[in-house]
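Incident log, support desk, overnight shift.

02:14 A customer reports that sequence design results differ from what the structure should imply. Their input is reproduced verbatim below. On-call engineer (initials T.W.) acknowledged and began investigating.
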């Protein structure tokens, strides 16, 4: 997918005027981030609103002792960093590429211009922030209350969100290592959980990905 196609297919772009879309396409640029590289780093001053054209990115932080906490994973079609752009402050988290990723970067000035000139875009951002808050509340609950099998199920389900991540199809191209990093489990433990979920008919393990058979079942799953 080209950068232009990614921008035009974004959920927030559907109600922009031709003039607004033209400015977005003129100002937004693409960068490549290799697996393990940083899309952005904690402490940096925010300069762009970020979208995933291709790849997979996790938002996480490290403690002073090196312990990592993952907030969420962002698949293709997802955009993030709007809260930091709105507050014009330094980043409070790292964003790392779990695989080679293509990143769309909309300059903060363009983002703020859209916010001030497009009512549909403003409405989109209101929903985006509300949905992100709900997602993070669910993540905290999962991490503190649920066992690894349930965390893996809920992690997979969280990648399917009509507002935050509208572009994902029924096959998630994610490795067991990547799923473990997102759900707070080892690769081996994530594999055990996937085997269990497959036996229960919620998903099937295909070559190169995971086919979702019962999304609502994954969302409700509790071991």
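02:41 Re-run completed on a clean worker. Output:
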């Amino acid at each position: 997918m080209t950068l232009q196609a990614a921008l035009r297919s974004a959920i927030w772009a559907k109600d922009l005027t031709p003039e607004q879309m033209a400015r977005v396409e003129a100002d937004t640029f693409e960068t490549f981030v290799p697996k393990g590289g940083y899309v952005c780093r904690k402490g940096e001053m925010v300069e762009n609103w970020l979208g995933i054209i291709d790849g997979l990115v996790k938002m996480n932080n490290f403690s002073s002792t090196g312990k990592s906490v993952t907030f969420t994973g962002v698949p293709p079609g997802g955009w993030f960093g709007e809260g930091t752009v709105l507050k014009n402050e330094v980043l409070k988290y790292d964003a790392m590429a779990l695989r080679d990723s293509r990143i769309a970067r909309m300059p903060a000035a363009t983002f703020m211009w859209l916010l001030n000139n497009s009512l549909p875009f403003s409405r989109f951002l209101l929903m985006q922030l509300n949905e992100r808050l709900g997602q993070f509340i669910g993540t905290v609950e999962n991490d503190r209350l649920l066992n690894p099998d349930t965390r893996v199920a809920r992690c997979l389900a969280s990648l399917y969100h009509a507002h935050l991540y509208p572009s994902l199809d029924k096959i998630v191209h994610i490795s067991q290592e990547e799923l473990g990093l997102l759900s707070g489990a080892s690769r081996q433990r994530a594999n055990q959980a996937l085997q269990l979920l497959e036996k229960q008919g919620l998903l099937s393990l295909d070559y190169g990905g995971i086919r979702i058979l019962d999304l609502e079942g994954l969302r409700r799953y509790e071991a």
